[in-house]
Amino acid sequence: QVQLVESGGELVQAGDSLRLSCAASGRTFSSGVMGWFRQAPGKEREFVTSINWSGRNTYYTESVKGRFAISRDNAKNTVYLQMNSLKPEDTAVYYCAAANYDTGVLLSRPSMYAYWGQGTQVTVSS
Questions:
Q1: How confident is the prediction for the chain on average, in pLDDT?
Q2: I need a labelling partner for 60 at 20 to 30 A (CA). Which of 41, 68, 71, 80 fits?
Q3: What region does 8 belong to: left with phi over 0, alpha with psi -120 to 50, or beta?
Q4: Alpha helices (H) in the chain, listed in sequence order
């Protein structure tokens, strides 16, 4: 079992930066793909980014490329999401997710992840 706890979400202005953290406990954290998803009110949960165990394979949804960066520190059991040049359309609850396995292939569907955090709210005002 893996427990995930996100932090770092807050209300910011457009153009600001935020760093989200996801602390994991339990077994298998360091061996699997980690991802960030987000869900805005009235919308489906959408893939934002993912990273494999080594950190060599990262993927981003088109709307955040060049602005967001995912990283992980396996020694600290933590994955990060650095978000720069935030826009009002980035407003959502951001969820951390952990897959049960490692792969260099893109895992973009929520069903591909076995564990989820409770989410952290990011609000970007214009």
A1: 94
A2: 41
A3: left
A4: none
Measured distance CA(31)–CA(19) in Å, rounded: 23
Q: Report d(CA 96, CA 98) in Å as an integer.
A: 7
Pairing mode of beta strands 120-125, 11-13: parallel
- Burial group, residue 66, by CB count within 10 angstroms (0-12, 13-18, 19+): exposed
Q: How far is it, in rounded angstroms, from Cα 45 to Cα 105?
A: 20
* Cβ pair 88, 126 in contact under 8 A: yes
**Stretch 47-68: mean pLDDT:** 97
For the cut 70, the answer to whether the pLDDT of residue 29 exceeds it is: no
**Distance separating alpha carbons of residues 17 and 30, to the nearest angstrom:** 27
Q: Determine the Cα–Cα distance for residues 59 and 121; give it in Å rounded to an integer.
A: 22
Q: What is the mean pLDDT of residues 19-29?
A: 85
pLDDT over 90 at 2, yes or no: no
| 120 closest CA partner among 12, 22, 51 | 22
